[in-house]
Amino acid sequence: MTRLLRGLHPLRRVLTGRFVVPVALSALVGTGALTFVLLDGQAQGGASGGPGGANGILVALDQAGTGAPQNPTPPKQPKNTGTSNASVRIYRHGRLVAYGNSAILYEYPPQSYIPAGQALFETFCSSCHGTDASGTSRAPNLVGLGPATVDFWVTTGRMPAENPNAVQAPRKPAKLTDKQALEIAAWVNSLDPSEPAIPHVNLKHANLSDGFNLFSLNCAACHTITGAGDALAYGTYAPSLRSATPTQVAEAIRTGPGNMPRFTGNLTDKQVRDLVAYVTEKIQHPSNPGGFALGGVGPVAEGFVALLFGVGVLTLVAYWIGERA
After folding, report:
1. Model-level pTM?
2. Would you say residue 21 has pLDDT above 60?
3. Which of 3, 22, 157, 251 has its CA 20 to 30 A from that of 219?
């Protein structure tokens, strides 16, 4: 025991003796004021009809000497994964109007669309979602949704809903034009600006092979490998992808409508671009090297044809041979 106490003597001196001041000063220096400045330089618009040049933005954060910020900010999403943490951020009059990169540019609807959007919302949406878009017993709250969510539901004809009590809103011919959908999205977003904005996908350098691999891994389990869609559980289903536009496919990936998972933060914009290219090129325009697509619904139709024509014809041939014998 005496030897143990002697061994602890230097440690006791550090904690209580002459070493306490240097240790305290080192801790103070290590957790001192931290200031950094992030300068996002000028950027140019990257999509047809998109915004023009942009002014740089200066962001500064001062961290107090207590070792933690007074108002901690949430961690940023990985870069170029569908959020405004992107390589390109375009500002106009101090307001973020677009962000993205060479694969996808996300653009907010113009503020001039807001008055018309409010009028359209009151006419077609307020009976279910409420005049302030905060939701009712018939429909959910829309405040805080990004423009891409609203645009997807309106342009695919799922909203306005014919039957608000339906288990799943079906795709149908859109009741409103694309511009009217953007106007409604602009007004809803003005209540509580959020992400994602409307994606404009640049398919020029897409990799179809990577798109197929991503589709097989993330989408085929529900939509089937041919994109024809399939039944799920409790009256729900994964819809066909054969009539979706590139923007709608990207919106669905980034917002996760209905039962679909939301792929924001875990798929890069390049991966989404490759996925969109595969869906809109290979799934919507299949080559069908076998000659007949048979509806593109997979082995069920092919098995039916094999039984009807293959086994059926062989049965008739066998019967004919038996009759001649």
Report:
1. 0.71
2. no
3. 157
